[in-house]
Amino acid sequence: MSYILSFWQRKWYKGTMSVVEQQKIIELVRETRHRLGLSQEKFAAKLGVSFQSVNRWENGRVKPLPMALRQIEALLEQMGDRGADLLVKHFGSKDKVT
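Above: the chain's sequence. Below: its structure in token form.
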């Protein structure tokens, strides 16, 4: 199985995130969490990260690691139609490429 880096992962590795891109990450994290009906604490537990990490992502203080972005992408895929628009908007496709 080959792994293709998503748009956000390429930006992370290059270290070149603009304010607009940062806002998109904030929107992605917050909207995914809200659609799942989870608090920051429960969303963090689902991703296997700390509450502080989710809080910092949503406040734009730090960027999620590529692994966390992959987990968010997987959650959106599992949500089906409820997550399809976010999947397309933030990851470019509602179907995962393997």
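The chain has one domain: 7-91.
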